[in-house]
Specification:
This protein is α/β, with parallel strands linked by helices and 368 residues long. It has 15 helices and ten strands. The protein starts with a helix and ends with a helix. The mean pLDDT is 97.
């Protein structure tokens, strides 16, 4: 079977079991540049409207050549958008967040809604990228056309509702204003939800097989706020968004990326309509493979679960192999799993280690 069939069988979009657990991985810029030279494949970069997502959706040709079963695409910066970098190395992105490049990820230096307190101020201040500008979905359309017959194509709308609100308002202010019930909060959530409904629908127009939303509700030991607050303030927006996608295409696969210890919300994620949970962050409470598979494996698929913070860059080959065997045999039992690192592989991972990871995934992919 080809890669597309492998993923579709794993996630229940086709009958039967895959011949092996499918594989997906993201690579940082330096690793993509290394493999571009090694494989003699030009690096194709799609600059996303939120900068860090660029490395989720770039270099697909390289990742496929290395053994990935999945294409990940998304919206580009508008063709005529040219950020002006000032003397401090900062710039305004299309959301008018002031950004700078950190050691690994971009950092927000100034939140555009940092002073908003009323609905009127919100409406006069908030800026969304125009999704109809030229160039926005050209790369996505080209990737779908080139690869959809052989590979499973995911449309990425990460930095979705909660995270986009956080990065417009600032985490401290957002959390305080949520707790205080400030009047602008539900209006902000509705505006962001409307934006991402349009965003996702346009990616669906390009022909993607799945939509990948991404918001982090957890820290290393538990939720950022209570389940009740999630259900009262945030959950209705995700229900509305997922319903809009499914109304357009009942067969679209809906994926949620949510970092942190968030097992307390798994039933809510399923109730919302998400069908795959990513990245199954390892090493946090409630995320063990047995706990996940036993608790929710008959209701939702899994994608990720391999530790990229310590194990992949620093662990021995034997430890990595042991972990992969455990995750594949448990999460992959009877299907439902795509093996992947829990986040983008960074420069602390050597190219040789990347190839070892891929080889081990292929070697043990059919053991479940």
């Amino acid at each position: 079977m080809n890669a597309r069939e492998r993923v579709m069988k794993a996630w229940g979009l086709m009958p039967g079991k895959p011949d092996r657990v499918p594989l997906q991985f993201d690579l940082c810029e330096s690793l993509l540049n290394h493999f571009s030279k090694e494989l003699n494949i030009p690096l194709s970069i799609t600059k996303n409207i939120y900068e860090d997502v660029t490395w989720r959706i770039s270099g697909n040709e390289i990742r496929l050549a290395l053994g990935s079963d999945v294409v990940v695409t998304g919206a580009s910066e508008a063709s005529d958008f040219k950020p002006e970098i000032d003397e401090k190395g900062t710039w305004l992105n299309e959301y008018e967040m002031r950004m700078r490049q950190g050691d690994i990820y971009v950092e927000i230096m100034e939140y555009p809604l940092k002073d908003v307190t009323t609905v009127e101020e919100l409406k006069n201040t908030i800026v969304f990228p125009d999704l109809n500008l030229p160039g926005r979905f050209e790369d996505a359309a080209a990737l779908v056309k080139k690869y959809k017959d052989e590979y499973f194509v995911i449309g990425d709308i990460e930095v979705t509702i909660f995270t986009l609100a956080q990065q417009m308002v600032g985490m401290e202010k957002l959390m305080i204003d949520m707790a205080m019930g400030e009047e602008y909060i539900p209006v902000l959530i509705n505006m962001i939800t409307d934006f991402h409904i349009e965003h996702g629908l346009k990616l669906m127009d390009q022909g993607v097989d799945a939509l990948w939303a991404g918001d982090d509700f957890g820290a290393q030991t538990g939720l950022l706020f209570s389940k009740e607050m999630f259900r009262d303030i945030w959950k209705p927006a995700y229900v509305r968004m997922c319903n809009a996608f499914r109304e357009k295409d009942p067969d679209i696969k809906l994926i949620l990326h949510c970092d942190g210890a968030v097992s307390e919300l798994m039933d809510d994620f399923i109730d919302i309509g998400f069908q795959v949970f990513n990245p199954v962050q390892p090493g946090v409470p409630g995320h063990g493979p047995e706990e996940m598979k036993r608790g929710w494996g008959d209701k939702i698929g899994f994608w990720g679960a391999i530790d990229q913070q310590e194990l992949i860059p620093l662990g021995s080959d034997e430890d990595l192999e042991k972990d992969l065997i455990e995750k594949i045999s448990i999460l992959g039992k009877d299907g439902g799993y795509v093996v992947a690192p829990a986040h983008i592989l960074q420069p602390d991972v050597t190219p040789e280690r990347v190839k070892t990871f891929i080889d081990l995934c292929h070697k043990h992919g059919s053991i479940y």
